[in-house]
Design a protein that fits this description.
single chain, 326 residues, Quinone Oxidoreductase, Chain A, domain 1, Rossmann fold, 28% helix
Length: 326
């Protein structure tokens, strides 16, 4: 086995941000008590922001991006992991302040890792990635919503979070409605389990502070007016799980849905979620996610494809999940 490995590295100077493909050794890695041979990573919206510099996601330079990875433990000084363990990492600032998954090896804190469920392959775990794991956290937030309570709205449905949320909700017996700006993806979305499709334009403009009760619950990855309208249309006692800001970080809403209908707005953070919640989410993914549907929403790429794909994911030109093979 070669001591060197390939990586995508981001650099920044007075002229701006750039990327390069480099050969590194373990001596180049950051501190940590577990070294992992990375087999797969993925591309999330945040990765697109980091790759393009569209938002100041990266805060330490130079940086190996990639907020997710899966692989095999090579060395460990952490009591919870030993050589040969199959592990997953999501978040914890990896790819932002600590070298991430777009490299053949990673050295990280063992507290950041979870053991990969045996029912899910390394490639499938990265087809899930932060987007799918976040989708599971959103669905967990809707756990008190009965399956017969009505339709569950999924916004940004053709994206990574939305695609996995549709597959999960369908498998768990919910009626999921897909909101998308790409109506040509109807066959893809119904194949994942959407009961029907609506145009995102019906939600993306300023709406009423309190609207007709349409949704028993919501999984929202979009934010801004879309989230405000989803909240205003949620049924009495319903829960809205908010995890993204593809339309924007603002929330032009009122308190009326909360104080007149008892609506709950559940904020979903996947980056710093405690280990117990992560392990529960991955256990439920192993139990409830239809892996055939996961495979159908997944495509593959290599390191060299990532700079262009980073542009595409921000432009809404990707769908489903991407597996990056290291």
């Amino acid at each position: 086995m070669s001591d060197s490995f390939r990586a995508l590295r981001l650099n920044k100077n007075d002229e701006g941000q750039s990327h390069e493909f480099v050969e590194l050794t373990e001596n180049d890695l950051m501190e940590g008590d577990v070294t992992v041979a990375v087999s797969h990573s993925t591309l999330n919206y945040k990765d697109g922001l980091a790759l393009t510099g569209a938002s100041p996601v990266v805060r330490v330079w130079p940086m190996i991006p990639g907020i997710d990875f899966a692989g095999t433990v090579e060395k460990s000084d952490h009591a919870g992991f030993k050589e040969g363990d199959e592990v997953i990492l999501n978040g914890w600032g990896v790819g932002e302040t600590h070298f991430g998954g777009y490299a053949g090896k990673a050295r990280v804190k063992g507290d950041w890792l979870v053991k990969r469920p045996s029912a899910i392959s390394a490639a499938q775990s990265m087809a899930i990635g932060t987007a799918g794991y976040t989708a599971m956290l959103c669905v967990m937030a809707l756990a008190d919503t009965p399956t017969d309570a009505g339709e569950i709205l999924v916004t940004g449905a053709a994206g990574g979070v939305g695609s996995v949320a549709l597959a999960l909700l369908s498998k768990m017996g919910y009626q999921a409605v897909a909101s998308t700006g790409r109506m040509e993806e109807e066959a893809y979305l119904t194949g994942l389990g959407a009961s029907r499709i609506i145009d995102r334009n019906t939600l993306s403009e300023k709406g009423r502070p309190l609207d007709k009760e349409n949704w028993a619950g919501v999984v929202d990855a979009v934010g801004s007016h879309t989230l405000a309208n989803a909240i205003a249309q949620t049924k009495y006692g319903g829960t809205v799980a908010a995890c993204g800001l593809a339309q924007g970080p603002d929330l032009p809403a009122t308190v009326m849905p909360f104080i007149l209908r008892g609506v709950t707005l559940a904020g979903i953070d996947s980056v710093m979620a405690p280990r117990e919640k992560r392990e529960a989410a991955w256990a439920q993914l192993a139990e409830h996610l239809d892996l055939a549907k996961l495979d159908a929403m997944s495509s593959e790429a290599g390191l060299e494809d990532l700079p262009a794909l980073g542009q595409k994911i921000l432009a809404g030109q990707t769908r489903g999940r991407l597996i990056v093979t290291l």
